[in-house]
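Hey,

Quick one before I head out. I ran the complex with adenosine-5'-diphosphate overnight. Inputs first:
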Amino acid sequence: MFLLIALALGVALVVALQKLRDYRRAIRGLAQSVTGKQPFLREDQPAKLGSDWDRLCAEIGTLITENTHLHQLRSSHLAQLEATLGSLQEAVLIVNDSNQIILANRALQAIFPRAPNILKQRLELVLHSREFLTYVEAVRTSRAAAQQELEFVEGIHSTWVEVTGALIPPLDGGKGAWILFVLHDITKQKKLEGVRKDFVANVSHELRTPLTMIKGYVETLVDGHRDMPLADRERFLTTIQRHTDRLNSLLDDLLALSRLESINPGLRRESCDLSHLVAGLIDDFRGRPSAVDHHLDFSIDPAIGRLLIDPLKITQVFENLIENALKYTPKGSHIEISARLREHEVEASVRDNGPGIPAEDLPHIFERFYRVEKGRSREKGGTGLGLSIVKHIVQLHGGRVWVESTLGQGTAFFFSIPVRSSA
Ligand code: ADP
């Protein structure tokens, strides 16, 4: 009897242990399915664990399936969003509630090429701008302006963007709102704005000086011309004339420059013999009072032949360069104009043996209104626009300009234009 009971207990224990092992294995399997380590398959679950266990498995199975579905839906939403935003011209950036970058389209990467692999990174580590982070906070607390202009500085590079931010519901089902930013690159406009402001300021300044002088002298003449000695009156009138001439040249140069910069700069190419053009120009200069104390020479390589250029504009290039050489070199200086063929280009130069230009001024010499010695240039009737006009004309011909100069030895201005020979 005792033996029977012991045997029955032993069998019951073995069955219970077996069941326990089955439960543990089943629970382990469920746990792995819940954490996504293996798919949930009902067939994998032991069949003999009872109806309660079956119900539990069925519920968990449904939950896992729903969860997987939601997961897929969210990923596909994000993928759809990425695809849609990727093709947009506007740069788009989405960050989550802890400023982690969730999405950045192609246009955004084009604005910030120096910030690669920005996905999943924190905003502040990628886009360095304190103002931007302040703006992000303002968007989060709904205090932000509709649009804001911001500057991002990366070493020597500066990028200006116009940014609009809006709160959006989190696509990961979390609680904290995400932010969608639309950014517009306005660096070019900002630069142009700066150039325009500088230009207007420079023009106003250039106009004001002669106008103030003219006004002053005219007022003195109006008030006192009756008792004024004739010599003084003549001196005053000559000064007025000089400043009027200056105003005139300034307006001429401004008009020339604005025409050259317009959509239709009016380049009229025609077949032209460069050597003939330069010879005529030198003849003309030799007859001018400003050139009588200088030595003017020229040498044009006969191999150049006829070129397709705008003769009036190229004449203006040579004129501006020769006039500068005459203005900025002392009496008795030598000025040499030459041109030679170099592969597919004609390279021309105007060289003088004057005082030269300091090295620090050379990179700016072709900028509008840039002068090495402001007083001296004005005194010589310079507008500060001559070399700018030269550069524009040469560029219109598809060429380039440059300068070489050594203090105390002289200056050489070069320009080269691609050969477009005419038959
Ligand atoms: P500007 O009307 O003042 O002559 P430009 O644009 O023609 O204006 O020239 C810019 C500046 O470059 C001049 O003000 C002058 O200081 C300098 N420069 C130009 N040519 C020479 C030269 N041959 N030798 C020395 N300085 C020169």
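The mean pLDDT is 88.

Talk tomorrow,
K.
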